Structure formats: structure tokens, C-alpha cells
Give the backbone structure.
Amino acid sequence: MAKMWAGRFSKEVDETVNAFNSSISFDGRMYRQDIQGSIAHAEMLGRCGIISVEDSKQIQAGLKEILCDIEEGKLELDMTAEDIHMFVEAELTKRYGDVGKRLHTSRSRNDQVALDIRLYLREEIVEIKKFVVELIKTLCDIASENLDTVMPGYTHLQRAQPITFAHHMMAYAQMLLRDLARLSDTSDRMNFNPLGSCALAGTTYPIDRQLTSQLLGFEGPVVNSLDGVSDRDFCVELACALSLLMTHLSRFSEEIIMWCSWEFKFIELDDAYATGSSIMPQKKNPDITELIRGKTGRVTGDLVTLLSMLKGLPLAYNKDMQEDKEAIFDAIDNVKLCLKTFIPMIRTMRLNKENMRQAAARGFINATDCADYLVKKGMPFRDAYKITGQLVALCISRSLTLETLPLDEYKQYTDIFDEDVYTAINLETCVNQRNSEGGPSPSAVKVQIEKTLEQLKKVEADD
């Protein structure tokens, strides 16, 4: 394919340079956005009198025809083309001759690619947010079904205090709500139009940037033309939001991996979302969660790629910036793939509630409640803390629990203890009385679920 910029050059570019320079193998996915932007540009050129209205309409019709042919499989992308922008323009020129050659008036590939990637990422954010909303709703459903499912809460991976599975699920729901907010913020900040920045210094033609912004659904034009072609902050922001989203999925995956093990056996994954071993017939491996854990590093690497690519670039456009697309596309593809598989996996997992309850009972996780029992009867907390610690040590030495320790043993430490201590340290009591805002009691978690679903309604309404 002849190069649109070949006028300055006296010989053909070396084939290896062509291959090295070409980006259509990955930016070809933006064909729809490229055509969408070109249609808006052609409409503006016609309305502003920069080209004739007749040429403008013919160009727009031709672009729509090319889009239809690509989507119907009648036109394949030419992998020898330098990029998707040159491919579309060359195809338009092939079909319409001089009319097609008028399309690029008052435009550069610099502002064209900046436009295309904003349009593309804006759409992808909407899709990713839909997956995140679905995941949060799934967590709310699981939580609603397990308001009374007692399990140990952990610090330092040591059993700490009793909570419920519902409470645990809603903690991840809050993380994902923040991910949604970050995605929305990123979309808002990127929703400004670089078209009209041209190569870097705008144009002498009487263009209307407000019109193209309106046609393409932007808040308005990018204020500075240099910034318009050199800004890739929005790619970094999106990669950062996606990296944090993957980090949350990875933390969740790590817990699922532990919960599936025989050492915990809190849950069992559905057979459709686990794999076996080639040599050990008893194995049921949580491969999906392990892959998510691994892909988190990959998405984080995409973020580092973008930051490293940008950190030394002078204004305005530099060819280094071609690397932005492979990195951010890879991050998007992997996040969507992980969410698509993670959601049905947790929706179909089965809980072993008895194992959770037994683990909670064996870990002295009601020790704080024992100390609080003494405090509520007038003892200073530090004294209550010390006595409870001594009781735990006693139970360990005798293979007992606080629930099975006889009352006369309690009374050897203080006469404050009475029969009602067994009610106070009952796991269900411990959970139910933790009804402070944000706590694990069924009533507190119900409020969390309601608030979360209300926030999701707002997100869906805004989108």
C-alpha cells in the first residue's frame, strides 16, 4: 500500500521498517471509532465550508459503506497498511478518488489517534462497569443468603473475631464500588475532544471544534492543542483503575484458593469452574483463581509500561506513544476475561457452613467478647483483657474452649463471672451484638446491602 506521506521520500521504506512501524495489527480494533470520528470530521468540514457539502455527504456515505463492509466481512483489514487510519483513508480514496482525499483536511494522525483511543476506551469502560455491577449484585445476593452464616474473621491470617460470610462478601462489594467510582472518574476526565489539535498547533482553517465535540458526545474540546495530541494521562488512569480492580479480584481469589483447600474446606467450587490433575485423580484445582492472581501481575505490568513510556517524552507526539495501545488493550482484555469467569464461579460455589462454624468455635475468637462481658460489669478493660488471656491459656493447656470451661474455673479469676457468661460468649450472640454501623450482625449487614444496591442504581442511572 502506497504511503500517504511518501511525497518527501525518494525511495521505498525497508520492509523490516514497515513491519516494525506498523500498528494495524493492534489498532485495527478501533476501526469503528476511526470511522465514527472521520464522519464527524467530514460533517464539520462541510458545515464550515472548508469542503463542499456535496463532498462532505459523499465522504460520510463512503465511510458508512466501509464500516458496513468491514462488519459484514466483505472488507478485510490490510495488514500491510501502516495503521487503521491510513487503511480507512486509502480505502475511501480508492472508492471515491479526489473526494476521499479531502477527508484529511485540517486534521493530523496525531489528533486522529488521540480521538480514536478516547472513543474506544470510553466504550470499554462502560462494558467493564457492567461486569463490575453484575459482580457486586452477585455478592449482595450471596450476602443476603448468608446473614447468619458464622465464620472466623482473620488478622495476620490468625482467627481473630467472629463475623459472617455475608459480612465478608460485603467487604469486597465496597472495594468494587470504589473501583466503579474510579472508572467513572477516568471516563469523565477523558471525555474531551482532541480533534482539531491537528499535528500539535491547531490549524488555519475555520474549523468548529464545538461541533465535532457535540457530534461525538464529548463535554467539549481539549483546551490546549499541544496537550490534545500528547496527553495519555487517561490511559494511565484507566490502567491504574484496572490494576486496582485486578488487585481486589486477586485478593478475593487468594481467599477462595485457601477456602477450597482441605485445611479450610469452607467452600467447594462447581465442577464447571475447577480442573483436575494429570496424575493425581483426587485433585480439584481452583485454576481460575490462580490465573486471575497471575494476570493481576500482567495488568500491573501494563500500567508500568505506560508510565515508563511517558516519563521521558517531550511535547508533543512521539512514536513511543504507539506503545500505549498494546498495553491498555491488554489490560482491558484481561480484566474483562477475568470478570467473565469470576462472576459465574462465585455464583455457583457451595458453602460448607458447618466447617466455617467449627473453625470459628475452635479459635477463641470470642475472647474479646469475654473481656467485654467483664467490662460491662464494671471491670477496667485492661484488667478484663489480662484475665481473659489467662483463661485462654488455661483452656489451651486443658484442651478446652471458653464455652466448655466450667463456671467454677471462671470464678477462680473473678467472682464477676456468672452463668450468663456462656450466653455472652456464644458465637451467634457475639455476631448479633456487633450491630454497630458497618458491623457483621445480620441487621448491620442488611443495611450494607441496601446501601450498596442504592449506589448501584445511581451508577446504572448515570450510565
Summary: The chain has a mean pLDDT of 94. The CA atoms of residues 108 and 198 lie 5 Å apart.
